[in-house]
Amino acid sequence: MPRGPGRFLRAPVAPAAALAAALLSSLARCSLLESGDPVASALSPYFGTKTRYEDVNPGLLPNPEAPWRDPELLEGTCTPVQLVAVIRHGTRYPTAKQIRKLRQLHELLQARGPWGGRASATSGRDVGAVLADRPLWYADWMDGQLVEKGRQDMRQLALRLASLFPTLFCRENFGRLRLVTSSKHRCVDSGVAFLQGLWQHYNPGLTPPDVADMECGPPRINDKLMRFFDNCKKFLTEVERNATALYHVEAFKTGPEMQDILKKVAATLQVPINDLNADLIQVAFFTCSFDLAIKGIKSPWCDVFDIDDAKIPERERQSRQGL
Ligand SMILES: *[C@@H]1O[C@H](CO)[C@@H](O)[C@H](O)[C@H]1NC(C)=O
Q: Most Cβ neighbours (<10 Å): which of 104, 176, 286, 303?
């Protein structure tokens, strides 16, 4: 497990949703430690960009506002003059597309035939029955928006940065802070929450004003920078809209590893394998991470997968990003 400076920041693994706070200078790296949190899943290390801050840095559980300082960093011999941080948005709801797929999966479970083995539901072993009976609490309006926990993620991140670099984050410097964000609502909202957290740090007990009225101004939207992948012609023509380039992603989704996991999940959920596909498996897996990150619960969706299965969506993401 890598350990290093910036453990309090998460590496922006997917480019899809970044928010940059241009401030001081620090490299973000990802590390996962054993978590003492009882609801954390054994699958948590495989949640990628959907990993909770608490699972990357378990020190946050007892004290989410206390900074963690690498002993080798800033030993008192150097003075930080600038910080540039690339920050991923806070915890969010699934997208409408993910929610639609989850609903499809839920309907599939509810439509299971009599061979679905409902009798064993009382013993707690029929995961499919547990999931079919569990109301789907995700709704279309949620569509990838930042959740309240996500606002808190950002406020607490701001407080940790301010405690870690007190000279940079002094009151007088607040006007020099520049936040650049993508136009995605969850990223803009994350920037706002970050600034509000910081403002409250300077003005304890007061209600923050509108970010437009803060000395540093509101987060500035710059999609050309923050969603560069949507604006890069070469990437769009040579990769994103190029079936040949995407061949490996498709090959993986229909390959033997995916077939194995489809077989396993079909048996666990007692649904026909032909009704399942790689996208549905992925959304089921993500629901385990969403339920944990948003609701703080250990989802029954986590019981569908073991650690070997968890590595599969991870590899799919890697094959996609490795392009
Ligand atoms: C599409 O991808 C393939 C494989 O990476 C590459 O050889 C080809 O040049 C790409 N096509 C375009 C139009 O860029």
A: 286
Alpha helices in the chain (DSSP H): 53-56, 96-110, 127-133, 148-164, 185-202, 223-226, 228-231, 233-235, 247-254, 256-269, 278-290, 307-321
pLDDT in tens, 204-236: 999 999 999 999 999 999 999 999 988 899 999
* Same domain flag for 49 and 83: yes
Instruction: Classify residue 1: in a domain, yes or no.
Output: no
Domain stop point among 189, 204, 231? 231
Tokens of 295: 């609701």
Are 176 and 223 contained in the same domain? yes
pTM more than 0.85: no
Q: Mutation test of ligand 1: which of 234, 241, 242 has the most ligand atoms closer than 8 Å to its C-beta?
A: 242
- Residues 200 and 162 placed together within one structural domain of the fold: yes
150 in the same domain as 140: no
Q: Using only C-alpha atoms, what is the Rg of the chain?
A: 22
Beta bridge partners of 86: 20
Query: What is the residue range of 105's domain?
Result: 96-144+233-321
Contact 84, 25 (CB under 8 A): yes
60 and 193 assigned to the same domain: yes
The tokens for 193 are: 């929450």
Residue 189 within a domain: yes
Give the span between the Cα atoms of 158 and 193, in whole angstroms: 9
Same domain, yes or no: 204 and 271: no
pLDDT digit string, tens, across residues 128-161: 999 999 999 999 999 999 999 999 999 999 999 9
Considering only CA atoms, which of 92, 65, 217, 200 is closest in space to residue 146? 92
Give Cβ neighbours of residue 27 (< 8 Å, ≥ 6 apart). Answer: 4, 5, 6
> Distance from the CA of 253 to the center of ligand 1, in angstroms?
20
Q: In Å, how far from its chain's centre is CA 209?
A: 28
Nearest protein CA to atom 11 of ligand 1, as residue:
238
Task: Give the chain's domain count.
Answer: 2
